[in-house]
Design a protein that fits this description.
The protein is an all-alpha fold. Helix 1 (2-8) packs across helix 2 and helix 1 (2-8) crosses helix 3. The termini are far apart. It has 4 helices and no strands.
């Protein structure tokens, strides 16, 4: 599971592992983040009419670098 999460959240996984977190804790810290980030990167939320149209699980606390990656993907579409 950690490897599939790492495919989406490489920087986050590598950072947690570098800080000494176990694979289990790393997975727990990043699993839902990877799901939400993958949905954003795939364009699932590209053409929404308003924030009220976003599903409940479309947001997750992410750092500025992660949102920067999502913004870059949106600008490339």
């Amino acid at each position: 599971h950690c490897l599939s999460v790492r495919a989406v959240c490489r920087r986050e996984i590598d950072g947690d592992r570098g800080h000494g977190y176990s694979w289990k804790i790393t997975l727990l810290r990043n699993y839902w983040k990877s799901k939400v980030k993958q949905a954003w990167l795939s364009g699932k939320y590209s053409n929404i009419p308003s924030q009220n149209s976003l599903p409940e699980k479309s947001m997750y606390p992410m750092d500025a670098d992660t949102w920067g990656e999502i913004l870059e993907a949106e600008l490339e579409r």
